[in-house]
Design brief:
Layout (H helix, E strand, L loop, with lengths): L2 H16 L22 H12 L5 H18 L5 H19 L5 H16 L5
Length: 125
């Protein structure tokens, strides 16, 4: 064991003996760990730091932007000029995702799924 590991263990043990680690939020509950098994080991720490700071990798950021546009479009009248601009931006995102080999199905699932369910139930949507 490295010296730094030994020092950390000693500090943890001392804190436990003093009761400083009792009554903390989440005590007695299982840890919720991110599945980072697909991330190379040398990148895990930096990805975790970026995630904790609120940053997303570019491939996830564009997906988030697409989902935001879908939500905005669902709230607007389809004839609205702003809706037309959002549709153009969404189409550009779709093309970018397709070009990088990513699926765009997640952008349409809700809209088309809701329409299909409505037709099946005879709502006439």
């Amino acid at each position: 064991m490295w010296l730094i590991d030994q020092m950390a263990e000693r500090h943890i043990q001392e804190a436990m003996e003093k009761g400083e680690l009792s009554g903390l939020p989440g005590e007695g509950k299982p840890l919720v760990l991110d599945d980072d098994s697909q991330v190379p080991a040398e990148l895990r720490a930096s990805f975790r730091l970026l995630k904790n700071a609120g940053y997303l990798p570019p491939e996830l950021e564009i997906r988030r932007e697409g989902l935001e546009l879908v939500d905005l479009l669902d709230q607007l009248d389809p004839e609205d000029q702003q809706a037309a601009e959002y549709r153009r931006k969404l189409r550009a995102i779709e093309l970018q995702l397709q070009k990088s080999g990513q699926s765009t199905a997640f952008l349409h699932h809700g809209r088309y799924g809701d329409q299909a369910v409505g037709k099946l139930h005879g709502d006439g949507n």
